[in-house]
Design a protein that fits this description.
The chain has about 500 residues and is of the alpha/beta class. The chain has helices at about 50-65, 70-90, 90-100, 105-130, 165-180, 195-205, 225-230, 245-255, 280-290, 310-320, 340-355, 395, 415-420, 435-445, 480-485; strands at about 15, 15-20, 20-25, 30-35, 40-45, 135-140, 145-155, 155-160, 185, 215, 235-240, 260-265, 270, 300-305, 360-365, 385, 405-410, 425, 430, 450-455, 470, 470-475, 485-495. Bound molecules: nicotinamide-adenine-dinucleotide.
Length: about 500
Amino acid sequence: MSPNAYAQAALPKRLQHFVDGQFIDSADSFPNISPIDGSELSQVAEASKDQVDAAVRAAKRTQDGVWGSLKVSERADWLYRIADGIQARFDDFVAAEVADTGRPVSQARSLDITRGIANFRTFADLIRTANSEFYETSTADGGEFINYVTHKPLGVVGVISPWNLPLLLFTWKVAPALAMGNCVVAKPSEETPTSATLLAEVMRDIGLPPGVFNLIHGHGGNAAGEWLTQHPDIDAITFTGESKTGSAIMKAVADGVKNVSFELGGKNAAVVFADADFEAAVDGVLSSSFTNAGQVCLCSERVYVERPIFDRFVVALKAKTEALKVGSPYDEGTTTGPLISKGHREKVLSYFRLAVEEGATVVTGGGVPSFGNVCDDGAFVQPTIWTGLPDTARCVTEEIFGPVCHIAPFDAEDEVVNRVNDSAYGLAACVWTSNLTRGHRVARQIETGIVWINAWFVRDLRTPFGGSKLSGFGREGGRHSMDFYTEATNVCVRIG
Ligand code: NAD
């Protein structure tokens, strides 16, 4: 399908909750606004407290009596059916993701929806092949014992996800939670409710037992999100979003001492050594700073370049940044869509103004593009590069979450490691060098959950994913997800 064809897709105009196997509406609703042109895409039901409660009750009942007692192979088969159901409606999901976010069609096809499918298949495969710990123990009185660990579901898991990679991040939590035998009550971001609604349609159409997957729409604070975290029958919360929201959720679950897994914000660094493959490093930083208009938690907003190649690097990155095609995802060749909303654009523009006040040199961008068409009512900003700020500037320390990076020179390996680590966040970093010994040495010292050497955004779903400091805690992915979404019980048996 051509990009333009996705603009014609028939998407639901009224987005409802999916509770106990049924779509249900609410008295209240809110508009889902297109970031491409400001038009209203749909009305979204705003869940009441009673509806959140009904969703949790349905999940609890089904977990106890149905889903939690299925055999591993049966649960794995269901996850494959969900994946196949998304695959069968691949273009609908692409259309939903592009309409809600304005991301390029090529990205939705190659990344978002593909990964949504992969999330279900990966965790189905994981539970089919998972092994456990086993120990032989002897005691001073001659007793002999074996120990083995069994993993039981936690119960009901609350999933709360953000808008930046809607289906990808939603299913990154829903899939492992279901795989491990939990039932789920999930709330997508109020900014991007459509792909989660299509996922609920898939669950209904494949006949997933009612109550296994429940979807509630609504806002976060003093609304569906907060009510979910406060619900006494939720056994764990898995959350992706801003660090300050993570902090609010932690307080909400404190009294109930609930399990939490937090994937939060970042202020990620890319480090380019003078010996790096120059073109690969420029292309890598172009991707890591501007993919999805900079709205990926793993994007690099801080770039450190070794002084001998600093000027050349800035010139090269500027040229490639100015060659990005900003505009409607429905136009052929668009590389960079809008920000998620005008509200978020106002936040990003406030940093554009602040950078100038803080003394930045604006290498490129710094404003709002003009299109002369409906996109002028969208939420676009120009991809932006700054130089000249001190490491203490707010624009260099605070997460902006837009298509922007600051480039600074450095002189020595130790110095740059210290500057990378001098951050309140600890999510991800990239190191560009042809000296792999140095790459490994630097990677070991960087205080983030993931370090790429000569790469960015490559994710093997079996590896641990998460951050340190304000970027969260806990790791998900592969067996790390198994650890989070299950209760491990050690069984100790006398054998002699
Ligand atoms: P957000 O924290 O504003 O919202 C995320 C979700 O939390 C939404 O569904 C929202 O409704 C809900 N929410 C808000 N307040 C709540 C409350 N008090 N109680 C319960 N739920 C509440 O985040 P966002 O703006 O949607 O997403 C962008 C942020 O997410 C950025 O900071 C980005 O770095 C981060 N992020 C992190 C990762 C990661 O893996 N570490 C991945 C993607 C995005």
